[in-house]
Recover the amino acids of this structure.
């Protein structure tokens, strides 16, 4: 399934998102029905979408057919549950879903979902039945693991054969990892039981959101319906703060488990909670009754724990190291505003040797373009903002006397358009940044109006296929102004602007109807082109890790086309065309000798071939051969990772404050710590253990994540090298420097 189809594929949350504690022997599956406010929300959404969307499309029979197709695919993206006869049964609905919305009768889409739930239960029951037998791994057969583009199974026999191969593959993975038949049966039976438990936690709000997104995304890929809870979470993501206790939660078996504690939060300051503790009950205030949350969906538990600032919440907690029969303890906490610092801009400094001198490169990582809109609107002088944070980091990097700055926008999916414009303004004096064209064809230019720069030295922008929307606006503006060098792979290609429209204004009796995230404009570069469909093409290309056919704007079947408009009036800030070929030549010579970079290229090519083949052998002998080859490659990488770094590798310069803090907390390293460090290195390239995330211990998962974070980021280090090369060229060629850096002729 395409990774970006997140909202359309909400039904897949049954496999990961909502926990797994519902009783497995529940006699009958609840038949879900639409609520009155949902039919009202659908009607008002259709009126807004058909009139005010950038690509306004009438809700008619033609649209109904598109909704029908997308709804079935959203429910069963990999075509594992429905058979063709199920689609034929509801063929009459193809041209009637528009009538269902307008007539405020959504029973039909709910009936389709209820059939899906029935089929889901049947397939999982069959999978569990297959565990009573033992697969024959001597047969020469294979399994197609990506079925998004496959045909629907024609018959029950076809879908059973599909599940036979799926179970066989699950079994073989565990067998290759060294598990015996009993352990394999136990692991898979629990896994499939958990699938059922999670699916039963889906409710009418989930079903309605899946259906409404099938409608919204049938118009255009970036238009979505957000139910009341999804709307709240979207708001939290944009302002990077919430009011709660500061604990990241996860569902494991029947329990809500603490996965991470935010430093400085009520949970952290109390000293009473630790990673691995299980929350089994929640109570409000000093005297509120305890609500048993064992087996609840994770988002329902979160809803109970969040609350107004300075209010009290009491948690009934089983210590993580206690047995299931241990007595829970009651912990009282006062909720505070929690800042989601993991998503905030961060800086590091890398040093690169250049002969006898060292080049200092400041790297600013920006995961999203965030802004606390409400705080800014009410005049809060300390409101949270990506631009404000980056400006502060740039001031610090100036004091650190860095020679160049690299803005890392990899996997930054966008956010606030205002932030993209204001962030660009930190690097240019004044002028247009992006153009917007409305549905009526009116073009408006978004300008940086503040004179002066926060950084007048050279800059680079690192992007990948996951850099989208606001990231592309910023990267394109830097490129069009000649202000810096764009490095990486072609970006996502999202050239559209969305706005949030609350449907609550149309509600009766103050009901919450949710929001539409609706496309209302298309943005264009100041040179008149657009990033739509094509994305931003980097000046210096790094290996393309993703498949453009399956990820990015070009993978959507209804994406808006590429087009151009008249350029804005702007004066380029610099000219990088003369320096790019020189940097590219140095880059190509360096990576040709870089073993880590070549390993990465090999891995990329290997994965691309796997995607192309889209088949995995179910023959044990063949799979063992493949595994042995992969392990041999992994050992090469482990040896390389364990070796001393090259003298030419960029070196991370520790932050003095962090270094001091770590020194105080540090303990003498012993044999145990040495073993853990070695395991962390090995964990970066660990072989397939056949398990899914929640089947591993929490400590193992956290250790693997830590190892992955500490793994060598080959692409970032190469981008840092390129930035260092640029400094060297500018230092030795004053005429080149004057063209690249018009704001800083002294450099």
């Amino acid at each position: 399934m395409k990774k970006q189809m997140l909202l359309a594929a909400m039904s897949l949350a049954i496999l990961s998102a909502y926990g797994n504690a519902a009783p497995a022997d529940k006699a009958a599956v609840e038949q879900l029905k639409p609520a009155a406010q949902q039919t009202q929300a659908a009607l008002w959404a259709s009126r807004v979408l058909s009139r005010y969307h950038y690509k306004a499309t009438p809700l008619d029979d033609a649209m109904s057919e598109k909704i029908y197709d997308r709804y079935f695919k959203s429910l069963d993206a990999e075509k594992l549950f429905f058979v063709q006869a199920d689609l034929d049964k509801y063929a009459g609905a193809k041209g009637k879903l528009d009538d269902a919305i307008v007539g405020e009768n959504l029973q039909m889409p709910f009936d389709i979902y209820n059939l899906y739930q029935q089929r889901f239960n049947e397939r999982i029951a069959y999978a569990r039945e297959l565990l009573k037998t033992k697969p024959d791994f001597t047969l020469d057969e294979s399994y197609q693991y990506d079925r998004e583009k496959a045909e629907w199974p024609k018959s029950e026999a076809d879908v059973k054969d599909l599940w036979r191969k799926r179970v066989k593959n699950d079994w073989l993975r565990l067998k290759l990892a060294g598990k015996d038949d009993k352990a394999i049966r136990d692991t898979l039976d629990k896994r499939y039981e958990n699938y059922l438990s999670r699916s039963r936690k889906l409710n009418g709000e989930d079903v309605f959101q899946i259906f409404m997104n099938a409608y919204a995304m049938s118009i255009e890929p970036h238009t979505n319906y957000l139910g009341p809870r999804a709307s709240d979470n979207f708001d939290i993501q944009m302002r990077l703060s919430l009011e709660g206790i500061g604990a990241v939660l996860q569902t494991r078996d029947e329990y809500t488990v603490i996965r991470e504690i935010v430093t400085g939060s009520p949970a952290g300051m109390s000293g009473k909670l630790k990673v691995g503790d299980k929350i089994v009950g929640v109570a409000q205030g000093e005297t509120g009754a305890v609500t048993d949350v064992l087996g609840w969906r994770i988002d329902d538990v979160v809803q109970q724990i969040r609350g107004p600032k300075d209010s009290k919440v009491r948690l009934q907690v089983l210590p993580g190291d206690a047995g299931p029969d241990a007595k829970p303890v009651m912990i009282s906490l006062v909720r505070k505003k929690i800042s989601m610092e993991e998503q905030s801009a961060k800086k590091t400094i890398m040093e690169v040797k250049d002969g006898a001198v060292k080049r200092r490169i400041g790297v600013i990582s920006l995961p999203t373009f965030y802004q606390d809109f409400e705080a800014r609107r009410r005049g809060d002088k300390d409101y949270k903002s990506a631009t404000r944070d980056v400006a502060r980091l740039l001031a610090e990097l100036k004091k650190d006397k860095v020679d160049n700055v690299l803005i890392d926008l990899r996997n930054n999916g966008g956010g606030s358009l205002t932030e993209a414009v204001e962030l660009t303004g930190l690097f240019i004096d004044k002028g247009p940044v992006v153009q917007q064209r409305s549905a009526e064809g009116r073009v408006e230019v978004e300008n940086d109006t503040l004179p002066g720069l926060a950084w007048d030295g050279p800059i680079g922008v690192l992007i990948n296929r996951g850099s989208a929307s606001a990231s592309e606006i910023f990267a394109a503006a830097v490129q069009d102004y000649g202000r810096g060098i764009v490095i990486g792979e072609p970006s996502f290609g999202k050239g559209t602007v969305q706005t949030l429209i609350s449907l609550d204004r149309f509600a009766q009796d103050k009901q919450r109807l949710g929001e539409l995230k609706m496309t209302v404009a298309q943005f264009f570069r100041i040179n008149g082109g657009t990033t739509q469909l094509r994305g931003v093409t980097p000046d210096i290309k790094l290996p393309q890790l993703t498949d453009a056919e399956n990820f990015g704007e070009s993978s959507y079947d209804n994406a808006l086309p590429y087009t151009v408009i008249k350029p804005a009036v702007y004066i380029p800030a610099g000219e990088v065309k003369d320096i790019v070929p020189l940097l590219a030549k140095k880059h190509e010579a360096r990576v040709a000798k870089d073993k880590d970079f070549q390993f990465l290229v090999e891995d990329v090519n290997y994965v691309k071939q796997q995607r192309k083949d889209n088949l995995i052998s179910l023959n044990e002998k063949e799979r063992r051969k493949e595994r042995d080859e992969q392990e041999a490659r992994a050992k090469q990488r482990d040896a390389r990772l364990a070796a001393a770094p090259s003298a030419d590798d960029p070196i991370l310069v520790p932050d003095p404050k962090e270094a001091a803090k770590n020194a105080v907390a540090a303990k003498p390293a012993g044999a145990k710590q040495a073993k853990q460090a070695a395991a962390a290195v090995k964990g970066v390239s660990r072989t397939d253990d056949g398990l899914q995330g929640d089947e591993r211990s929490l400590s193992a998962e956290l250790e693997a994540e830590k190892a992955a974070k500490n793994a060598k980021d080959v692409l970032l280090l190469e981008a840092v090298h390129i930035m260092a090369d640029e400094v060297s060229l500018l230092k030795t060629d004053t005429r080149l420097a004057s063209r690249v850096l018009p704001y800083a002729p002294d450099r």
